[in-house]
Fold:
Amino acid sequence: MAQYLAVPVSSSDHILGPSDAAVTLVEYGDFECPNCAAAFPVVRNLLESLDGQLRFVFRHFPVSIRHDHAQKAAEASEAAAEQGKFWEMHDILFRNQDNLDRESLVGYARELNLDLDRFTYEVDEGIHAERVFRDIASGEASGVSWTPTFFLNEVRHGVARDLDGLVRSVVDQVRQRAGSR
Structure:
């Protein structure tokens, strides 16, 4: 039984790729999840190899009961987003997912030349928690219960850990859509 994306992609999402791309891939992810970290380079490779034919959307789904730092890492990425650096922070967090404590998050903000006073205030005060919770709620409404969970053109993709299958599905969808244009 197919499950569908309950909340459509909008301008409030974090998006890479053109709005008129043939295929949209939405990931519900957790910065501390090893399977999400394994998917990270696969998605990046797809974006590069499909050159403008793929739009990628990242939504937060921190699994806090298994990953102690996932919620704050998500909030840190939102604090970076407020300073125009979501994707840079996204990448750093996945590349360093074994180091997501507060001190490390501040260090990553320093690397990105963020306003550290603003960043630490926003993270420490939970300013972006509601934004993260909205993503979680949209994921739950779409039947998400683990990470990563992918939706390909608003339809849930099979097994989250089947990255080869994900690549095949994305490439097949791009080919099908390109053939029908």
